[in-house]
Amino acid sequence: MNFNLSDGFYLRSSATWNFNLENDTYYIPVGLGVGKVFQVSDKVTMNAFIEPQYTVASDGIGNPEWQIFAGVNFQFALGE
Q1: Can you tell me the distance from the alpha carbon of 73 to that of 75, in angstroms, rounded to the nearest whole number?
Q2: Among 26, 45, 47, 70, which is least packed by CB within 10 angstroms?
Q3: Cα 31 from Cα 50, distance rounded (Å)
């Protein structure tokens, strides 16, 4: 889920639920983060975000209580 703000900023929530059917374990995180889209050049756009996530439900050994989901991606325009 994204909510666009001004100046290329946005709020986001995109936690990925993890299920291991072989070992019958799972963890379900919920997060809220912030991102920004930058115009690097006339043909390149960069998107950077960070989202802390808290595990609201889990079963199994070694599942995280907190995690940080972050990323950077680039978009390149093709053609003229």
Answers
A1: 7
A2: 70
A3: 10
